[in-house]
Amino acid sequence: MNTPTTHAQPLGPLVDGFEVVIGFETHTQLTTQSKIFSRASTAFGAEANTQACAVDLALPGTLPVMNKMAVERAIEFGLAVGGEISERSVFARKNYFYPDLPKGYQISQFEIPVVVGGEVSFFLGETKKSVRLVRAHLEEDAGKSLHEDFVNQSGIDLNRAGTPLLEIVTEPDMRSSAEAVAYAKELHKIVTWIGICDGNMQEGSFRCDANVSVRRPGEPLGTRREIKNLNSFKFMQQAIDYEVRWQIEQLLDGHKIIQATVLFNPDTGETKSMRTKEDAAEYRYFPDPDLPPLVVDRHWVEEVRSRMGELPRDKATRFVRDFGLPEYDASALTQNRPSAHYFEEAVSLGAQAKLVSNWMMGELSRRLNAAHLDFAASPLSAQTLAALIVRIMDGTLSNHSAKTLLESLWPLDGSRESDAKAAQTLVDQFVDSLGLKAMNDTSALELIIDQVIAANPDNITQIKAGKDKAFNALVGQVMKASKGKANPQVVNDLLQAKLAAL
Amino acid sequence: MSAIHELSVKALQQALQTQQLSARQVTEHFLARARNHGASLAHLASDMAPQSPSPSTPGSKASCGAFLSMNEAHSLKAADESDRRIQAGQARALEGVPIAHKDIFVTQDFPTTAGSKILAGYRSPFNATVVSRLQSAGMVSLGKLNCDEFAMGSANENSAFGVVHNPWDHTRIAGGSSGGSAAAVAMGLTPAATGTDTGGSIRQPAAFCGITGIKPTYGRASRYGMIAYASSLDQAGPMARSAEDCASLLSVLCGPDIERDSTSLDIPSADFTLGLNQDLQGLRIGLPKEFFAKGLSDDVRDSVRAALDALVRLGAQLVDIELPKTELSIPVYYVLAPAEASSNLSRFDGVKFGFRAQGYKDLDEMYLKTRSEGFGAEVQRRIMVGAYVLSHGYYDAYYVQAQKIRRMISDDFQRAFSQCDVIAGPVAPTVAWKLGEKSSDPLSNYLADIFTLPASLAGLPGMSVPCGFGEGHMPVGLQLIGNYLKESQLLNVAHRYQGVSDWHTQLPGSAA
């Protein structure tokens, strides 16, 4: 089913001659009103043990009943990543004792998961990467043990017990911490886009475990260690980097890596072993006799699909096909719903797609990021951006003037204008009042060019000696003298003509 | 009129509705009998019962040890409510008729122990669906009945709160695991009781105590609130004197509960009393040759044969059939049931409810001591067997293999049902044995389940009907097994048989 993971050529950067191999297991908390097998609420932050019903407490005689909404979330995920939805999947019991596990077993899926396969693609810099998914399965969360709040005792909060999780497991396809983080971000984007998870990493709604190993290129996979519960992208990168260095040092020192589960300590920046495989538990998995196999027929899948709307990967494909955008742009614009919506809105008003993309990914993203805003909350509406781009397209604005205009528009309430006509009026008024209209009048430009040529005899000499830099410097001078209003292409043409005539 | 405790559910129902008897009068009568003849060791050994009933000595001729807890104030309150409804013309189906529940069903009004020390002092915040359905039909709960710990046993010698004595001979076992239910009905401490059947736990004690009991098709009665032993096998059912009484109880007790129990069948219950008098002319009764092979004692064989002759006289015809995997049902059951039990019983860990051992150094020791002190020997044995067959490296050889044979056993039944309508045979190879006789030998206990296990593994309805007396004048039970959802057919056969026999109306001397 899977292609071999041993490659003659390493797929990522080597670290001290070692290839890094990473696989992920991500627990995403599903956005359902009630728990996966009971009717208790899943809302976060309630007082301890107030959101646990008899079923969650595992009181004698209680039985689990599947929450259909959780299954639909899993189906949505399967469709979003192009996985296969199993027509029949099985819930199993994973048996172990722990005080925050009320039944003494966790209901999970073992042999037959609800989603099989699928793929997550993303850009790492300019390079497109794909990570294959092994599976995604439904399971219930455990409660929380609170060791800090009590002296010589532990408190148990069962509010979280029975919260629905979708565990998403990858093949060991990632070859660097940067790639791993890019995967995690992409996965985060998918689950929040389709709305199956709120993505809140602080509250534990999106928890990643990274399986990390290293090997010499061409060798079989090395022994892995699993870093548990990485709940921020920053820690994820730090933890993996530390773990990779640690494993390489061990190997270089002649030690063997022992399979283990480790925790990352953000304070020390180190990973530390919790348990090794030797003391790994015997989970005694077997099909849960309280739950019949989960049957998802085609009809149900299609019903869910019809409600989902366009998926990010389909949207990106369409942006490439319909608007001729580079894949990289299409991928970046479909990072989240607001951004894709913003783009589509601006393009629908006649703004050229690549220009919209450039402005969104450049100037706008920079400003939004600085203000911690997304495109839905942008101080500049898609309509206003479209109006601005339309004026670049018809030559009214140079790129430079457009940026000046943006600077002025950004703080204005009016820039949030969602009416296209009104936005155009606003933009046009500002173009006039700021005197940003491009100098398409060649006679005025020629005058400036003549002055610049006269003032820079040295440059002329150099240009004649074939130095392009000197030419560019002159273009810069002309642009500056025009206060950025000149069309650089026109300046180029005129300047070249003048020089040729000298 | 006979004494109140000799009346059937139907007779009580009629006497109550016509106000010849009041519910209070009936309830007080049974409560007094339960107090005087039903007490178990529990009342001497612990303070679990809200009202300590009996001054009588457990195990004496007078007491069978069937009751684990009572709440007389609660029962009488319910009886008064029934009387009010009857007077107001608002009587429900079984208004004012008393019932007692196997202590495996959780109840709000009584403690629930499952016959285990580990649940000492436990009170459920909700009622089992079966209990609330019977209460909603107007039945008055008298209390909770002794059973083997977590329903694991065939003799009711595994209860943490003492053995149950057979009302026909107090030196013998009542059978298990619903031994308290069977003994209480046989002794006239309650006109009816609930039981549960995982591998024969309704049918076998019913047979040993000379009463009638039925286990419906798996999924027909809700398992919600029934403390799980082996989830894929556990099924609730009524135990009473006659098939007719079982039919009216079963009508109330069955029905979908899909919001609470995923294994509940989404099939409405029926009025099982409607088909009781159907003619048996042409009915094909299959006799599995494996049920009559060696190992079956002569006294039981003779009684069962005589009952079959009676059925032939009623128009039925006998057909020889085969259930070739019958012997394998023992190892299959004793792999699958402990496997499920080992997991089902993990929640009894001393953390959240029930018993927690004293004096532990750390979490592991807390678990170890709590479960070692809280569970009895048989429960610990099955947990260990179950954990073993589920562990890595053994799972395929035991659990998976057993599941395969379980499917073959079901297939064997379907083949048999192409040749016959109902299957008949003995419930158990012998009559009730002496207390202590097999208690040190779990294997011989397990072997005695051979005739009841196959129907359990296949999820088929099964029934026990009194059909005579064997060695030591101990009752013998005729087992009837039907195809899925054919409860009314079983009840029909049993009722017609009870129309021409009087075994089910005979009472042990202790019931006087």
Please explain how this structure is put together.
The complex is a heterodimer of chains A (502) and B (512). With 502 residues, chain A is an alpha+beta fold. Chain A is 39% helix and 19% strand. Chain A has helices at 68-80, 177-193, 233-252, 298-308, 312-323, 327-333, 337-348, 353-370, 382-393, 399-409, 420-433, 442-455, 457-464, 468-481, 488-501, and strands at 19-29, 84-85, 88-89, 91-95, 105-109, 115-116, 119-124, 127-140, 144-146, 155-157, 164-170, 206-215, 225-230, 260-265, 270-276, 286-287, 294-295. The longest helix of chain A is centred in the middle third of the chain and has 20 residues, at 233-252. Chain A is elongated. In chain A, 43% of the residues are buried. Chain B has 512 residues and is an alpha+beta fold. Helix content of chain B is 36%, strand content 13%. In chain B, the strands form three sheets. In chain B, strands 6-8-7-12-13-11-9-10 form an eight-stranded mixed sheet. The radius of gyration of chain B is 21 Å and the shape is globular. Residues 42-61 of chain B have low confidence and may be disordered. Chain A binds chain B through residues 54, 57-66, 93, 95, 97, 99, 102-105, 156, 282, 284-286, 289-292, and chain B through 105-106, 112, 114, 119, 122, 124-126, 128, 223-228, 230-232, 258-263, 339-340, 342-343, 345-347, 349, 351-353, 363, 367, 387, 390-392, 395, 399.
